[in-house]
Amino acid sequence: VRYALHVYPPYPASPEEDWPVLMYDVTIRRSWQPYARGYLLTQVLLNVVGFSAFWLPPSCGERMGLSITAMLAAVAAEIVVAANLPAAAEYTWFQKFSL
After folding, report:
1. In 3D, which of 53, 52, 51, 96 has the Cα closest to residue 78?
2. pLDDT digits over 21-80, tens only?
């Protein structure tokens, strides 16, 4: 929080009084670390697990199940995070990242 005191010259209606004005500059920032840990890291790990199905040998029968489970877990995590975010008129970085 910053402030500045400005004293303006006397007003013509009351020339004996000065007009002091306090101006405040308030900056509010949102913390990004919980979103990075809770959403980005989760999505990156689930995507790596989903793509790990391509590294499994073709004879392994659980390739399709692993990739579908990772995709469903990623979608469920995205829905949970989106439900906890406040409503906004413009796109947030979360919405841009999840598109």
Report:
1. 96
2. 778 888 888 777 777 777 888 888 988 998 888 888 888 888 888 888 998 998 898 888
CA angle 18, 23, 28 (to 5 degrees): 170
CA pair distance 13, 10, nearest whole angstrom: 8
Quick one: tokens of 66?
Answer: 């692993």
Taken in order 71, 90, 93, 30, the sign of the CA dihedral is negative
- pLDDT score for 72: 92
User: What gap in Å lies between CA 84 and CA 80, rounded to an integer?
Assistant: 7
Residue 64 has, within 13 A of its CA and on its CB side, a CA count of 2
